[in-house]
Records
---
Amino acid sequence: MHDVSLTAAALLCVAAALAGWVDAVVGGGGLLQVPALLIAFPHLAPAYALGTNKAVGVVGTTAAAITYARKAPVDVWLACRIGAVAVLSSVGGAFCAAGVNSAVLRPLIMVLLLGVAAFVVLRPQFGQTPGGTVTRRRVLTAGLVVGAGIGFYDGLLGPGTGTFLVIALVALLTMDMVTASATAKVVNVGTNLGALAMFAWQGTVLWTLAPFMALFNLAGASVGARMALKRGSGFVRAVMLVVVTALVSKLAYDQWWGTAG
């Protein structure tokens, strides 16, 4: 239905593989995948890029979640409870995606990300080792912030969701980076499924292309999860700083130069 050249399809698959790797390590695979889809289909509404991104990303995210759950100390029950809240919130975010002016949200997200980057740089031990006992109140707070807040954002815009999840889990539940990344993958499966259900219902998923991209995303995610487990929290932290910098740069470009064109 939506024609794409063989070269464009190949580049989209490469982008999907790289996105799967980044997403498995620290989240933020949408930074690569969504722009690639927008470039390949410039005449389609952005909702198609967001919907197709979810159809592709949910495969890699699920594979990464399974890999982490087998080898990392993940509290699957906690992750599933937060994920259940995130599913409902992401459905709401996806429903609102078509009617929200994302230009209004970009400056707020940039400020938040810059604050996060500064915090991670100024606190080198952030997420290096797990903290102490977590109170029930903190768990409830995490459920609201991570499940409801970030879940809604994932359905609404998406890129950077995994990074937000990792940061929130480290800050609120004192996890180390690897455990936070592993837990984030389980939650992210829920947000992806919720958003995908709404995008599919609205008919904004390119189903003829998504399965091919999903295979490459799956391969990238499997490699990324294994590298994160092998290299530890320092590696995850370094990748996080790169992803946060890339996300801020992209949002700044969209806000000032993209709208100017």
---
Amino acid sequence: MRDIRFFYDPISPYAYLAFERLPETLMGLSVLVHYKPVLFAALLKAHGQLGPAEIPAKRDWTYRQVAWLGHHHGVPLALPATHPFNPLPLLRLGMACASDEAPGETSRYVTEQLFHHVWRSGLDASDPPRLAALQALLQDHMTRRERPWLAPESDTVKQRLRANTDEALALGLFGVPALVVDGRVFWGQDALPMMRAYLDGDAWFGEHWDAVASRPEGVRRPT
């Protein structure tokens, strides 16, 4: 069985699209997916980048493209009332559901609830009553499964999220979604077919993966 680490932040529509399309991508394979929430903004800061929604022209294109991608792939997608927003409450809700055996992971069910909260309703993802309702849903889910529930604002939950983000940075991740298999990083929902080819044993990865990334820089812009 192969292990896949799926690093995500529910603020990202591309992470949502990748999440929804992942079962189809992995159909017929024996894999275990580990869903790992991270703070996308921390990855951007570490690499000196702006997010797509922070660049006006790119923001407009991003919303148009993800709306079309949802339509094209048959994935329901309704842009939230405001975007970007502060995803920390959602990320911490996810980490509050993590188990002691896998403290950095959310189950597929919990991950789905976080994404649907943002990308299925068209409402404000930061609305306090909506967040309270989501917390109640997740807490009830954990209770029914006889799993411990941690307060989202607890130091343990915050540390779990920091540890996930540190892990992502140590792997060189610069965005979400990022899927890591055998130490190889596949970034973006459009990389799903590439990852499937790797999992299927495509010989290209043995011949070209390292070679195409070894080009010397011809010029570097001053910062």
---
Amino acid sequence: MTATTDFIAELVRAANEVAKLQPMERGRLLKRAIATIRNMRDIVGFPTSGSAADLLIAMAALAGSAGSMPDADVRAALLEAAGMIRDRRIVMDSKIEVIIKKARELERPTS
């Protein structure tokens, strides 16, 4: 198994045993997941929206107060993070090139 696969498994395991996690461990796992997702976004070339719709922004807010959040919310965030990492790993392994163009560039006729 790779480090990424191991981390995905760690997140799923933690989600299944969230009641056993110490408050600091909850936040640490979420912050580590956020850093991993951001790194993978950069490698793959996924743009970040920077808007409130960006799940990482919501996840970062949760990570800061994960110790006092209900178990169900932390569980959902851990599973969401595991899914996001898995999805990005699939894209990375497939070696798909992500090309982002602005809408106006797409509208211009090419000569």
